[in-house]
């Protein structure tokens, strides 16, 4: 069963790149605005809505926490749009993603965020549910709003164990 | 000169409605997601990009604080898209908006946010610069990214004084 144990590693833009963007103010700002009073880290992620019936919307999610290790039974994806989650308080949260292999999710990868990091999943990226780790946590969500089915769920034959 | 003194009042969705949306988790959630583990406050604001060359992007701004009372010399607007600012820490910030009167900004209104409140300016809304009040503050910014001119600035003949 050890091959079904996945250890969560610190989230980095490089490791996450196949799945989306890490949204964080890292390094030097892109430019300044407001007569130098504001540093802007510009265009860190795009809001992608793939169908004409949808529109990009801003929502808030208040998530309850999970404990590690956890059993990962299911991942989901949203074919019609990207989905960004940015924490409104600095506690870490767990990010689980999986590569697409002929329409099904492969072996998951797990990341733990640093304070100030959010993520943007590309449209169609398999990912786990919103997973605070410390206490209830509020997230700004930027994703597609609109009619039609925009959710695919996959239940793995056997669960994966995600550990710290 | 007292007619050029504007007192900032607490931000409410009702008072801000002519200018945009207040982004906050207020009242009952719209619905639950993730098997009941997350309350979603859905579609609180739309990201509006009015031209085909632009796209909705996610940025971060790190703003330096201002002290009240302040002298408001200038407001700006972005005709090609909405612009959302959501604080990534709970300190209050100042929101200044002004009605459009035949293409020019009228008398400003000033609001102070409560912790957890962000704002989304409708496309073309006259507004002040990002104005933290307590300490440097990070904001998630969701607005149009793309080529072309998307900024109009107006300098008032006389400044306004914004007070707490």
Your description of this structure?
The structure is a homodimer of 164-residue chains. Chain A has 164 residues and is mostly beta strands. Chain A has one domain (2-163): Ureidoglycolate hydrolase (Jelly Rolls). Chain A is 2% helix and 52% strand. The first copy, chain A, has one helix and 17 strands. In chain A, the strands form five sheets. In chain A, strands 2, 9, 12, 14 and 15 form a five-stranded mixed sheet that branches. In chain A, strand 10 (100-101) and strand 11 form a beta hairpin. Chain A starts with a strand and ends with a strand. At the A-B interface, strand 5, strand 6, strand 8 and strand 16 of A face strand 5, strand 6, strand 8 and strand 16 of B.
What keyword list fits this structure?
five-stranded antiparallel β-sheet, globular, Jelly Rolls, homodimer, mainly beta
CATH topology of chain A: Jelly Rolls
Q: Class of chain A in CATH? A: Mainly Beta
**Count of DSSP H/I helices of chain A:** 1
**Greatest contact between two chains:** A-B, 46 and 46 residues
User: Which range does the strand content of chain A fall in?
Assistant: over 45%
